[in-house]
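Morning!

This is the sequence you dropped in the shared folder:
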Amino acid sequence: MWIRATFAGAVIGGFLLTAWAVWTNPSGAMAGPTPLPPGTLRLTTGPYRWMRHPMYLGQWCLIVGCAGLAAGAWNAAALGVVADLLFRDWILREQKGM
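The structure's back. Tokens below.
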């Protein structure tokens, strides 16, 4: 019972973190990382004052939470693979500066 509650908490927490990050991001929600103009400081408001990529973390929590709540091992495994691929894609985009 507490395991389902944990995954449900991950879904709710991930959604709230993503929404908060989008709301406090002045450039809005973009499909990928958007570099700040030269001379601009990093964001220091909202969740950005504690972490660099709160939208990524929130979306990852959503996917992992949904995987835990999924009915069946195949659904959970598929969502786990999706979470891993998205996370790798985000890291590669960030490293390339796309």
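Headline: Residues 2-27+44-96 form one domain.

More detail when I'm at my desk.
O.
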